[in-house]
C-alpha cells in the first residue's frame, strides 16, 4: 500500500516580506516565517513522516526543520536537491513585484508570474522548472511513497506548482490559476504513476505579501 505524499511551500522569507522576487537567491525565514512553520508542523501530528525532501535553498530547509522539530522527528532522513529549487527569475530577481505590476500591466504581470511558457530574460519559464522537478519526483520521491513511506516535500511556489501540475493533471492553460498557498500542507494519495487519487488540504492562517 502506498504511503502519503505531503507537499508544503516554505514559509515567509526576508524577501517575501519585502515583496521581492527571490528566485534562486538564498534568503532566510523571517521571525514570522519561523513561527508559522512551527504551526504547520502541528497540522500533521497524526501522520508520522518516514522520509523528507527539500530544495537546496535555506528557506525551504528551515521550514522543513521547523515542521519536523515540532513533531519530534528531527532524525528523519532527508534529501536535498536543486531540482526542487525555486524558479530562476533572471533579470527580475530582487525587483519588487508590485512595482513591476504597475510597470508591466496586470495581464503581462500575470503571464510573467503564472504563465506556463512565458520567457524571462536570463531566467526560467515554469515549463523549464517542470522539466527538472517532475523527473526528480518520478525518480526519487515517488518510489519512496510506493514503498509505503509517508513522504514530506518542502520546496517553493513554482517547483511545487510544476510537480502538482503533473500530479493533478492540470493543463498548461489552467496552471496559471493555481498557486500553492503559504501555510498549507497538501496531503495526496497517489497511484502507481504518481497521479492524484485523493487530496486533503490542511492550513494555518498565514498572511505573506508574496
Residues in helix, %: 25-40%
Rg over alpha carbons: 16 Å
Mean pLDDT: 96
Count of discrete structural domains: 1
From the N-terminal CA to the C-terminal CA, the straight-line distance is 38 Å
Helix/strand class? alpha/beta
The fold-level CATH name is Rossmann fold
* Principal-axes shape call: globular
The order of strands across the largest sheet is: 3-2-4-1-5-6
CATH architecture: 3-Layer(aba) Sandwich
Helix and strand topology:
Blueprint: E1 5-9, H1 14-18, H2 31-42, E2 51-54, H3 58-70, E3 78-80, H4 97-104, H5 106-114, H6 126-146, E4 151-155, H7 157-168, E5 184-190, E6 196-203
Parallel strand pairs: 1-4, 2-3, 2-4
Antiparallel strand pairs: 1-5, 5-6
Helix pairs in contact: 2-3, 4-5, 6-7
Tell me what the structure shows.
The protein is of the alpha/beta class and 210 residues long. The protein has one domain: Rossmann fold, CATH 3.40.50. It contains 7 helices and 6 strands; from the N terminus they run βααβαβαααβαββ. It has helices spanning 14-18, 31-42, 58-70, 97-104, 106-114, 126-146, 157-168, and strands at 5-9, 51-54, 78-80, 151-155, 184-190, 196-203. It has a 6-stranded mixed beta sheet. A hairpin with a 5-residue loop joins β5 (184-190) and β6. α4 packs across α5 (106-114). The longest helix is centred in the middle third of the chain and has 21 residues, at 126-146. The relative contact order is 0.22. The mean pLDDT is 96.
Amino acid at each position: 500500500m502506498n504511503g502519503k505524499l505531503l507537499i508544503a511551500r516554505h514559509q515567509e522569507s526576508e524577501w517575501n516580506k519585502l515583496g521581492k522576487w527571490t528566485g534562486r537567491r538564498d534568503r532566510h525565514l523571517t521571525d514570522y516565517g519561523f513561527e508559522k512553520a512551527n504551526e504547520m508542523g502541528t497540522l500533521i501530528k497524526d501522520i508520522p513522516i518516514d522520509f523528507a525532501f527539500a530544495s537546496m535553498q535555506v528557506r525551504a530547509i528551515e521550514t522543513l526543520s521547523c515542521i519536523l522539530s515540532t513533531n519530534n522527528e528531527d532524525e528523519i532522513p532527508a534529501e536535498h536537491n536543486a531540482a526542487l529549487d525555486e524558479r530562476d527569475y533572471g533579470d527580475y530577481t530582487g525587483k519588487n513585484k508590485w512595482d513591476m505590476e504597475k510597470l508591466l500591466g496586470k495581464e503581462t504581470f500575470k503571464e510573467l508570474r503564472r504563465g506556463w511558457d512565458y520567457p524571462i530574460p536570463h531566467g526560467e519559464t515554469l515549463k523549464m522548472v517542470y522539466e527538472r522537478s517532475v523527473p526528480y519526483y518520478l525518480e526519487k520521491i515517488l518510489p519512496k511513497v510506493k514503498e509505503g513511506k509517508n513522504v514530506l516535500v518542502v520546496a517553493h511556489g513554482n517547483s511545487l506548482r510544476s510537480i502538482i501540475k503533473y500530479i493533478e493533471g492540470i493543463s498548461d492553460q489552467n496552471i496559471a490559476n493555481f498557486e500553492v498557498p503559504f501555510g498549507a500542507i497538501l496531503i495526496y494519495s497517489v497511484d502507481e504513476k504518481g497521479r492524484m487519487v485523493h487530496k486533503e488540504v490542511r492550513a494555518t492562517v498565514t498572511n505573506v505579501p508574496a
